[in-house]
Amino acid sequence: xxxxxxxxxxxxxxxxxxxxxxxxxxxxxxxxxxxxxxxxxxxxxxxxxxxxxxxxxxxxxxxxxxxxxxxxxxxxxxxxxxxxxxxxxxxxxxxxxxxxxxxxxxxxxxxxxxxxxxxxxxxxxxxxxxxxxxxxxxxxxxxxxxxxxxxxxxxxxxxxxxxxxxxxxxxxxxxxxxxxxxxxxxxxxxxxxxxxxxxxxxxxxxxxxxxxxxxxxxxxxxxxxxxxxxxxxxxxxxxxxxxxxxxxxxxxxxxxxxxxxxxxxxxxxxxxxxxxxxxxxxxxxxxxxxxxxxxxxxxxxxxxxxxxxxxxxxxxxxxxxxxxxxxxxxxxxxxxxxxxxxxxxxxxxxxxxxxxxxxxxxxxxxxxxxxxxxxxxxxxxxxxxxxxxxxxxxxxxxxxxxxxxxxxxxxxxxxxxxxxxxxxxxxxxxxxxxxxxxxxxxxxxxxxxxxxxxxxxxxxxxxxxxxxxxxxxxxxxxxxxxxxxxxxxxxxxxxxxxxxxxxxxxxxxxxxxxxxxxxxxxxxxxxxxxxxxxxxxxxxxxxxxxxxxxxxxxxxxxxxxxxxxxxxxxxxxxxxxxxxxxxxxxxxxxxxxxxxxxxxxxxxxxxxxxxxxxxxxxxxxxxxxxxxxxxxxxxxxxxxxxxxxxxxxxxxxxxxxxxxxxxxxxxxxxxxxxxxxxxxxxxxxxxxxxxxxxxxxxxx
Length: 700
Ligand code: ADP
Ligand code: MG
Known about the structure:
Number of strands: 21
Shape: globular
Bound molecules: adenosine-5'-diphosphate, magnesium ion
Strand order of the largest sheet: 11-12-10-13-14-9-15
CATH superfamily of the domain at 456-614: P-loop containing nucleotide triphosphate hydrolases
Largest sheet: 7 strands, parallel
Structural class: alpha/beta
Number of helices: 23
CATH class of the domain at 456-614: Alpha Beta
Helix content: 25-40%
Radius of gyration: 31 Å
Distance between the termini: 45 Å
């Protein structure tokens, strides 16, 4: 039969329909093309033989050479196993098989030399090896004299069904023989020359069957580059199409809405705020649609920038909306923005999940007849029933909570797409931002309003709780307020709630009424109850706010100067930093107290140490990316963008990513339609990438 990259893997010798189905289910491999791009996660040096005395379970796969000296069958019925003693002449260990016993029994000859390849484990305090690969020493025809062997990611189910590392090597070799001369180059020749990248064929050959360490490194560099390059090419191409094709309302006027609010401001804008407002004005004055990401640390004053920009749109006869991720935050924004625009011409509305039907009707009316200028709300804003007469400016706060599709549904609310300002309070490492938001323009507020004292962060184990309570009392005596936050993790809402309830009771005992007043806010309360507790705290009528991490975003109570984070080890770095940003907003010295269990993993300890060492959100975001990897970063799952890279690693391959983006930009600048002969090669792969991305701009 004729094989192509689209051929199903069941037609490879030794695979068949049953294993093919399993491979698809377990690791998503369906075609020969999938298999060729199923990259090893590690390589082992098969020229290296270890002595039994040297090996230990932490080593992963090892290779041994020696002889079997005994063989016996032990155990009854389903515990039956074949136990053999293997020796390299100095040390010895047990080798155990639970499956394929009779087959092994027939094949192994006592006293002959074999090579064992497997993972070392410990059983009853001595080492052994379970189900290793056993081979007579011989040269492998595919690898020739090469000694690096690829190891592929696998699963329990695969291993239990005879899909071993050896099996992977064998089918990769088989596919290689069938496909090698039909693999097409996917990078332009001049680019490969200038960047000294090996050809696709050489890269794929060496990624699976490395000739040497040097060739392996070259293969990795080429494939990583290609992966990052195409993502950037796609993002930048989308961006350039938008710049060329999509018109936006041209906003040139600055009028009463802006001036009124500006005059009311009790402070000067920071230079960073001024710069960003200028960048936004340039965008919206250009006649093109703006798509801008605004990054800035917690408390850097993004909301104000967003509001002033929205007011410019309103001054130009358009409507604006601000979408935030939680109801509490929407209420807070509504309250503070109402205050900031009080007495002026701007009409502002609030729309959340708990807005009453009658109220909704009224809002809908005013939005449609254009008498409402600015709507603030949760994702209730996206719903189809919400229609504007001329929506011109959309602010999405705390973007990481929203998906790309939600962003896009706001686009569709006006015939000319509105200008879009996306704000994130979780600073994102540059490299991740380039991938997640690579199609947006980026502004950064890299300066906090003046007069803020850096927050002091301290880490205590639970055993020091009394000490911490003593400190909290001192702070309350000084007239300050305190947050006590418990982790909220969706999967175990019940347990989280119990934790919070218990914590709340403990706090009530340690801080009894009437000397101390405590508010509590959690997910099981109805919106009005939440709001009233928030209000009590915001007005300074309660000293302590016990809450789940719902307060993480946005809440602004300048008199709160202490943030106590319970079970801090259960939070990621970015989240801890977000929570910490709730304090330090007033003139007083603020504190963040991280309470953890007495025993911490190494990683958790690193997180606590870093939190105590720095207040810089970008530094923390970089470290978060390093410690957890991009897959776990907040926002990456919902982002809808291809962040699950096959070979490159955003945390580790930052330089290559920068290079890939620079080169992609050069190509787009010179040849946006890929019409030069050498660039035609880019079109098919880019189209394939596009096919996997939903085009939200077409969703109405
Ligand atoms: P972010 O949304 O970036 O976390 P906010 O917009 O909520 O920050 O601003 C945090 C606090 O700082 C608010 O109380 C806001 O009124 C105040 N603020 C904003 N800009 C300035 C400024 N230029 N000078 C002083 N205070 C400011
Ligand atoms: Mg904010």
